[in-house]
Amino acid sequence: MTVYQNKLNINKLASLVLVLFVSLFSFQGAFASDGHEAHGEETKEDKTSFIMHHIKDAYEWHFVDGHYGTLYLPVILYSSDRGLEVFSSSNFFDADHKAVAYNGYKNDHGHIVPLEEGRSVLDLSITKNVAMLIITLVVVSFLALKSASHYKKNPGSAPKGVASFLEPIIIFVRDEVVKPNIGPKYERFVPYMLTLFFFIWIGNILGLLPGAANLTGNIAVTAVLAILTFIITNVNGNKDYWKHVFATPGVPKPLLLVMIPVEFIGLFTKPFALMIRLFVAITAGHIVLLSIIGLAFLFESYAVGVASTILSIFINIIEVLVATIQAYVFTLFSSMYIGSAVAEHHHDDHH
Amino acid sequence: MDLLIPGSGLFIWQLVGFLVLFFLLSKFAWRPILDALKVREMSIQEALESAESAKAEMAKLQADNKKLLEEARIERDAILKEALTAANAIREEAKEEATKIGNKMIADAKAVIATEKNAALNELKNHVATLSIDIAEKVIRKNLSSDKAQKDMVEELVKDIKVN
Question: pTM (2 decimals)?
Answer without folding.
Answer: 0.71
